[in-house]
Specification:
Blueprint: E1 8-11, H1 15-23, E2 36-40, H2 44-66, E3 74-77, E4 82-84
Parallel strand pairs: 1-2, 2-3
Antiparallel strand pairs: 3-4
């Protein structure tokens, strides 16, 4: 649905790893290569604060991915790290 609506998928559960195992990473699977993904892998008690800390990074990555139609955004936010995949 996120791809059809040209929206970002925000995942807050650990099942995204099962998704990747089943369907392949978005870069490996043509169907999902345009999926913009924000994965929140932080603990419930820290997730709000981590998301607030990451807003500038998320906005930067979103604008970077919009510069070219073939780019996608993939950001992972965890308790002790924030990762972007380009």
């Amino acid at each position: 649905m996120a791809i059809a609506e040209k929206a970002m998928l925000i995942a807050v559960d650990r099942d995204m790893k099962a998704f990747v195992r089943r369907f392949g990473a978005p870069n490996e699977n043509e169907k999902y290569e345009s999926l913009d993904l924000l994965f929140l892998g932080c603990a419930t008690r820290t997730c709000k604060a981590r998301l607030e800390q990451a807003l500038d990074l998320i906005e930067l990555e979103w604008s970077f991915s919009r510069a070219k139609p073939t780019r996608r955004m993939w950001v992972t936010i965890e308790d002790h790290r924030m990762t972007t995949y380009r």
